[in-house]
User: What shape does this take?
Amino acid sequence: MWKGKASVCRVCSLLLILLTVLFCRPVYGAATDKPDPGRTGSISVTMRDEEHTAVGGGTLTLYTVAEFRQENGQYFWVYTEEFKNCGLKLEHLSDASSAKTLQGYAQAQHLQGVQTEISPEGELIFEDLELGLYLIVQEDAADGYYPINPFVVSIPFQENGRWEYEVDASPKMELYTPKPPVPVEPPETVSSSRTGDLAGNTPELMVTVILTVSVVILLVIRRIIRQSRV
Assistant: This one.
């Protein structure tokens, strides 16, 4: 009888071990997965100042820098036709200086991006975006603020071992203090009173000059006559 109980206990123990193996295996998260090329994403932007206050007004422009590609089970980025000659390596686009270089390149090549206005609440969203690398720049800032620095966004991106397709960005805006304009002094002009004085004295001056010349001429003639008599 005890042998039967021991056999039952042994079987139960084996079942418990089996259940533990089946249901307590480590679950590997999405970090080992690959992005889903059939999905789309979005970029939500909230403009805030240094006091974390929302700032409305102005616009943001979105450029598609690189596209998502998948071949033979591998995925990678490929520059779009517009940016293929920008001269930067894709792995270096996370640098802030690279974003400024891309902005300068887009301006020099007169590339057309998607421009969207920022709401009075300082919010903006780019929706239904294909997987890719995107450049966001600001040329028209809100009144009283400098334009934000350009930045590059990846759709998707990895966070906590998961692929995320909805990007939330909140760049900080910086107030500017405009310098007061330098006053320009008007050129000095002759006052009307002085002009009138000169105009009023002109006939008298001419009479004086004529009389002086006449006296000189008479003296010269008189001297010539005296010399001729001698």
Remarks:
- Residues 56 and 182 are 31 Å apart (CA to CA).
